[in-house]
Fold each of these.
Amino acid sequence: MAVKRALLTTAVQSGLYSEVPMQATSPVPSGEPFPHEFEILFQEHYLLVYRTAYGVTGRVEDAEDVAQTVFLRLLRREKPRDLLKNPKGYLYRAAVNLSLTIVQTRQRRARSETGEEFAVSVPLRASSRAEETHRKLYEAIAQLKPKAASILILRYLHNYSDADIAKLLGTSRGVIAVTLYRSRARLKKLLDASLGEES
C-alpha cells in the first residue's frame, strides 16, 4: 500500500464533510525533513495515542480529539528533544496528559452546570449502572497524578509488563511496582468514596 503524501483534514463546506489536503510544510521550520518523519511517527503511534486517550476519557470523540491535537501540536512546532530520544514514551505522555485535562474539564463543567441538589433519583438499568461505574472510574483516574495514571493505563489497558513500562518511561522496575501499588490503593479509595455516594 503506497503511503499518502498529503495529510488530510476534514472541513465542513455547505453542511457536508469533505477531505481537504492540509499543507504539512507551512508550520514546520524550513529546511527540516519533519513532514516525512511525522508521517512515519503518525502511522507507528496513532493507535497507541488513540487507545490511551480512549482509556482515560472513555469516549470515542474525546479520544479522536486527543489524537488529533497531539499530532497537530507536534507538527506545528520544532521537534522536542524527548521525542527524538523516545517517541513512543513522548507521545504516550502527551496523550495521557491531554486526556486527563479533558476529563478534569468535563468534571468541572458538569459540576458548574448541574447542582447536585437537583439530581433526580431514578433507578439505573444494568447497562446504565455499568456506564456509570466506567464514568466514575475515568473520573477517579483523572484525580491521580499524571505519572500514576500513565502507569496504570499502560499496565491495565495496554497490558504492558512492569519492565516494559519502566523502559518506556525511562525509570526502574522498582519505581513502577511501587507506583502501581500506591496508585491502585489510591484508585480504590477514590472509587469506594465515589460509589459509596450513590448508595
Amino acid sequence: MALSVVVFDVGETLVAEATTYERWEADGVTPPPAFEESDLHPDALPCLAALRDRGLRLGAAGNMRAVHEEFLRRHVDFVGSSERWGVEKPAAGFFERVDRDRPCGRLDFGVRAAADADRAEPSRERRDDVVVHPVPDVEDVPRGSAGLLDHALEES
C-alpha cells in the first residue's frame, strides 16, 4: 500500500514554537494567542504544498492548546491537540488519537518516535494500513523539505 497520509508534529516541525513563545513573552502577550502564518518555519508551507501536489493527505498534531487547531486546519486535512484530546505525547493514547482521527490511508510510524515514547511500537494492533518502520539517521536524510520529502516518498 502506497503512502497516502503524512502527519506532522506541530512544535518545531511546522511552527517555530520557541521563537514564537519568546516573541509573545517579550511583547507581554497574555494569554498567548493562536499561531499565525508568521509563526511557521519558512519551508513549512512549501513542503505542505509539495506533498499535496503529490496527492497526499496531511495532518498536524502536537502537545498544544486547542486554540491553535483552527489556524492549522487551513493548511492540513486534520488537526489534533493534546488539550482537546486530553492526552499528551509520548503517551500511547496520543498516537491512538492520531490513528483514529486521520483520513483513510496508510499510517506510518517511525520506530525512533516510538522508542522515544518508551514503547516498542506506537500501537499493539497491527493492521495493513498502519506501518511501523525504521526512521533513517538524520545524517542519511537530504537537507531541506524537498530532500526530506523525496527521501520519504522513495521509502514508501
Amino acid sequence: MSKKYAAFNAQGAIVAFYDSNDSPVPSSATVIEITDAEWQSCLSTSGYAVVDGALVAPTPLTAAQIEAQQTAQALAASVQSALAAGLTVTSTSTPAVNGAYPVDATAQTKITSIELFIVKNGTFPGMSGTSLAWHDVLGAPHIFPSIAIFSEFATAVANYVTDLDLYGAGASGATLPAASVTIS
C-alpha cells in the first residue's frame, strides 16, 4: 500500500502532495506523512497547513468573514455587469456621438492609446486625422468630429471606470455610478 505525503514551505503552507508509488518525494522537499483520509480532506478543503510537524485543518470562517466574502463577490459581479453593459453618452453639442459605448478592458486600452496619440501628434490617428469613427456596443460607428469631444468622452469613460473600481473595492462612500453621462 502506498504512503501519502504533504510537502510544505517555510510558512507551513502545503505546496504539493506525493504518493510513494506514483510520485516519489523529491529529496529537496520538506514533507510529513499523511493518511489517505487526511489527503482527501486536503484535496476537498483548501487552507490546510503544517504547524509544528502536524497537519492542521483551516480555521473555519466567521460569519463576518463569510459576509465580507459574499459582499466582495456581489460588488465584483456588479462591476463586471456594468463594464459589460457599457456607458451611455449624451452630447449636448454633437448628437451624432450619442450612444452606449463599451468600457471593457479592450475599449479602455484603445481609448488610452488614442488619447496618447492625440497628445503626441495633435490629431486623431488614421488617414483623415480630423475625425474619428468609434463603435458603440452594438457595433454602429459614431463620428467624433473633434479632439475636444473625443477627449471629453475619454475622460467620462475614465471617471466611470475609476468610480466602478472604487465601488468594486468597497471604498468608503463609493456607490455604483450611473451608467450614463452628458458631455458637451
Amino acid sequence: MVKNLGASERHTLEKIKQIDKILRQRTGIKLTDTMAQRIKSGLEKISHNESEEEYLIRVLSSEFNSAQAKELIDLITVNETYFFRNESHFKIMEEEVIPRLVEEKIDSPQKMINVWSAGCSTGEEPYSLAMLLKDKLPFGYKFKIYATDINMSVLKKAQAGVYGKNSIRNSLIEEYTQYFNRLDQDKIEIKKEIKNHVIFMYLNLKENIFLFGLDLIFFRNVFIYFDEDMKKEIISKIKKALKPGGYLFLGTGEGSSILKDEELEFKYINGGSYWRKRQKK
C-alpha cells in the first residue's frame, strides 16, 4: 500500500488495510496508494476529538454505519468533472445515437428514452445529457435520466444545480444558455426545466442495481475504483440493465474489460467510441 512510512505509522497503515478489506466487501472499491494517503491526511479533519487509531477502530467496528461510511467515501472518491467532459461522446450522441433512438421509438406511444448516468458526482454529466436531449429531441419525445453516486455529499450539490468556473470551462456549454441562469460571470444555476428530467439517487454498485430497460448508459470514469473481479461483476449488471440495442459510453481507456464481450459491440466514430448491446436473434 503506502510506501516509505515510518515505524510510528505502521499501526495506522494496518488499520487502513483493514478499511481496504471492508470497502471491497461493502462497496467493491479497492483502496489504492493515493486513496490511502488521502485517508491518512484527511483523518485529522474527520476524526474530531479521537486519535487516528481510535477513529479507525470505531469505523472498523460493528457500529460501522452510513454516516461513518460517508466520511470515508468522501475522502477516497475523486469528484473532478465538468460540463460536456469528453466532448466527442456528446458529438456521437448528437450525430449518431439520438437520431437512431428517435427512429427506433417513432411508433412507441410513450416515446420515452431512459438514461443512466453512473458515478454522476456533482451532476455536470447528467445535466449535460439533459440539455443535449432537450435541445435535440423532436417534439413529443420524452426522457428521464437516473443519476447515481455512492457519495451523498456530491449528490446534494448536484440537486442544488449551482456551478462555478471549473465546471463550466468547456465552451460547448455556451450553446445551451437557454437552460441555465447566469448568477455572475463565473457561476450558473441549472433551470428547473432541466432539473425535472434528472433523478439523483444513492447507489452502491456492490448491491443490486434496480435500473433496467435502459436505452443509454454513461458509465464513465467509474471503473478506476474497482479491481478486475468487481469490474466483471459490474459489467454483468450493466448488460442486464441495458435493453437490446442500447448504448453504453465508458471513460477513456476503460473498455479493455469488455472488448471481447459477445453481448456488446464496439463502435468507433468521430474520434470517440461507444458500445451497443447486440439485438437478440
